[in-house]
Amino acid sequence: MFVSQENSRFELQGHSQISAAMKVIVPNLNFVKTPAIIKVIAFAIVALSCFFLGKYYSDGYQQLSFFSTFRSPQTGSAVGVSPNVGKFSDQNLNLTAPPPNTGSPPKNSNNAPPPDVERMGIVNDEGAMTVEFEVGEFDPDSMEDLGNSDGGEEKRVGSRDSTAKIEKFRVCEAGMEDYTPCLDNVEEIARLNSTEKGEKYERHCPEKGKGLNCLVPVPKGYKHRIPWPASRDKVWFSNVPHTRLVEDKGGQNWISIKGDKFVFPGGGTQFIHGADQYLDQISQMVPDIAFGNHTRVVLDIGCGVASFGAFLLQRNVITLSIAPKDVHENQIQFALERGVPAMVAVFATHRLLYPSQAFDLIHCSRCRINWTRDDGILLLEVNRMLRAGGYFAWAAQPVYKHEENLQEQWKEMEDLTHRLCWELVKKEGYIAIWRKPLNNSCYHNRDTGVQPPLCDPNEDPDDVWYVGMKPCITRLPENGYGANVTAWPARLHDLPERLQTIEMDAYISRKEIFKADSKFWHEVIDGYVRAYHWNDSNLRNVMDMRAGFGGFAAALIDFQVDCWVMNVVPVSGFNSLPVIYDRGLIGVRHDWCEPFDTYPRTYDLLHAAGLFSIEQKRCNISNIMLEMDRMLRPSGRVYIRDTVSVVNELHEIAVAMGWVSAIHDTSEGPHASWRLLRCDKRL
To answer: Residue 348 and residue 678: Cα distance in Å, rounded?
Structure first.
């Protein structure tokens, strides 16, 4: 009814204007002899009349095409696109009479309501946070396989404006095949005043301007790695051509050489009959440990070739295996070549780069650490990282041998753990297992003056980047946060209590942000799995370089991609590591202006979302890309999601490093402000 009344009103207006014009024109056919100003006015009136007639009598016909600019993602050229795109239009000019008006507005009428718009954010119509949103989908047919590209060839989807070219990076000289910048800085290590506490094994990064500026070479005869799970038991000799561990530990069932491969029988110094039997013994000693249920995240100190962690994987336990780069310097390299989570780290003078209450169980089997030195400062660091109610398992000679000096060490360990309020749950054979208290009540009930003291209440136990170890007992949260994580696998998606302790801007809405983050990455990984066939891509060692709440890693588990993820939380953002560990994942704090503590060629996939647009303000992004190349295995892949301008620049760097790279639209579409840079590193 409203539309009909409006049309009637405009019809009357149109007739009145025509009548007025006719009164001027028709009675006086000599109007051309009038002054020029009258001619102009008369012409304007006629034009206006025609405009109104055309506008209000043509609702049922195609409107004029007023063109806007659209940039084709395929060609990058600007093309005019009418707002009538998608409407029927006969390109042959039809000058016959238009079809009669049916009286009701057609579908494409201006008076018809606009189509509903799908919301793509996490704010609903009322402005409240919501997880009901659509990410969009990848079109598998539009995803080009980089397998047919030559090194350095550019294959991209989406526009790209950058024309700057970067010179190709050179390959480093021979002898740098295992170069780890912050652990091989001989000049800086030589300047140390003391090394008696293991300072030379800590991070000593090159000075500004002296960092890596070339591509780390591969060893002679390097081959594509053996796929998991076969790699758990054997790796190519040529990929890690070091025999020191075989010479030192071959008799302890760690490692041996057979033909062109290293073989890992699964033994260790304290479990020469195999890790499986050893794990069964621990489970029988303390059934409440419940591997794969109550115990999900484990730290293995002085891990050797990481057989302890390798065999825990089949029990749904993820173990972070750590060891220093010492006389047995390649043990972490062997672990990562096998496909087992591992990282170079040392108990010396600085905190390890993991948060408080990170690990459900911490294990030390002949790890060659004097836990009672310096008033137990190293065991206090273990206590900081051990979850409330978690377990510490120690397999060492003082546990079971009766020599006087070893028994003295055992008494010192008993005394220290008693002052830490640890309960000796079980001592059997050559293993002793303690349990950490669930709260601070035992600490408060100690006698006055008992050492070590409780840390200051204002001490941040999650501040770890270049922070020295503290000679005090880390307080447990009075609200019990961290002690009440649910069993695996429910904890992967349950809201962690420590989410409320993260220092970020949002407070009330952080739960919704967590849920939205999880949903977003679930849908993105769904697209990656289908479009890029990740389940068939032989991915094993994965790093998320800006992990947030761990949504990327959680989604990989949901889609049963047989890999593990090192979740890196940059120091430039808020510290979400406690949340990541509460979810049953592993991760580390790091500053991407510096190199990472891992050997070259140790990751199959590097993922970075929004990293470079943040770090470019404080770091040299070429240095970050060179570090990525150092960590990435030949045949490894890189996925970078970032702004258009950043992705274009990174594409140029990738080509200069010899990667095969392509720029794709994200699932949000060609007009999104972000792009996906997908790269392959060729052998």
So the answer is: 39
